[in-house]
Amino acid sequence: MINVGIIGLGGIGKMHFGVYKKNSKSKVVAVSDVNVKKLKGLQSPAGINIDDPSGGNVDLRDIAVYEKADDLINDPQVKLVDITLPTFLHAGYAIKALQAGKDVMCEKPMALNLKEADRMLEAVKKTGQKLMIGHCIRFWPEYEMLRKIVKSDRFGRLYSATFSRIGSIPAWGWQNWFGKGKLSGGAALDLHIHDTDFINWCFGLPKEVSSAGMSKTSGAIDHIVTNYRYGKNVQITAEGGWAFHPTFPFRMSFRAIFEKATVEFNSSKKPTLVIHTARGKRIEPKIPSGGGFQREIDYFLGCIRKNKKPEIVTPEDARDAVKVVMAEIESVKKGKPVPVDKE
Ligand SMILES: NC(=O)c1ccc[n+]([C@@H]2O[C@H](COP(=O)([O-])OP(=O)(O)OC[C@H]3O[C@@H](n4cnc5c(N)ncnc54)[C@H](O)[C@@H]3O)[C@@H](O)[C@H]2O)c1
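# nicotinamide-adenine-dinucleotide complex -> structure
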């Protein structure tokens, strides 16, 4: 049994709580939150913008609760610390937990900037503990399917792939931290990074990025559109933003045009994934069960059990995602393409 402590019982912390509960090899033994009201008895299920079957009521009646995150980190019964805190707190607590000899699951984005990400990498190297950043899209069944198609030659070569992740700014956040660009990094770093990371995973790091974007309320980039350039005859673009008005529903989607088929995904449609073949057939593939969060956390728990470093998302991959988003933000500011450093 892997004993888990969750720091930050907000939108995604509650989601993770439900996920660990569904894995018979893990047990949440402690939670921490600065909001003491969240540490009492039964809590409502997670309420975030992505539908996932993993949510459910959070029952804290038999577990240790801490107002101070440091106390959870130092609790000897906790083996895995799960950091579901606002982004500006990721690096500090992840490093403390690694140094305390814990394995760490930490939500995306890895950190607010590369300097913090590098400090986290350094702590992983020094302690030998495991760190996985929650790039859940690598575990999302429809995205996993697209990657398999990209890597195989089932439908021939890819001409174009377009990704989108749009909605209104999260209303549930602690002290409106999403709306403060200095704490969240804006939609570019908080939301759009999911697609940047997925694009890195499918196609490798781009040679350069060319982005346009705008700031609405956070002081950081609230909407961004990027062209990822690979120096090959393939067009990869992504749009991400939370500048839409509150009743505009969150959706994530992609469209990929291959030689012999177009693959289309839209989280707000049923079926979510459709393949339109060149021969005029419409295929609705069966989507594997289990949500992306469940598959992600089950995978990391498996790594801990087998004493293996996570390979599907390495800490270096998560740093790369921050790096490419930083280049995109620079491109918006400069109004011209920005090369992506391969180091
Ligand atoms: N993978 C995904 O799809 C996904 C979805 C949503 C959020 N996230 C990420 O998860 C992280 C958290 O987002 P959220 O939506 O859960 O935010 P949230 O504001 O809902 O939750 C944060 C929680 O942390 C608590 N907190 C704040 N400071 C604390 C401290 N010092 N010690 C202990 N608790 C503290 C707050 O009271 C709150 O309950 C962010 O990095 C976000 O980008 C990822």
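# post-check
Residues 7-13, 32-35, 38, 48, 50, 69, 84-87, 89, 107-108, 134, 136, 170, 172-174, 177, 190 surround nicotinamide-adenine-dinucleotide (CB under 6 Å).
The radius of gyration is 20 Å.
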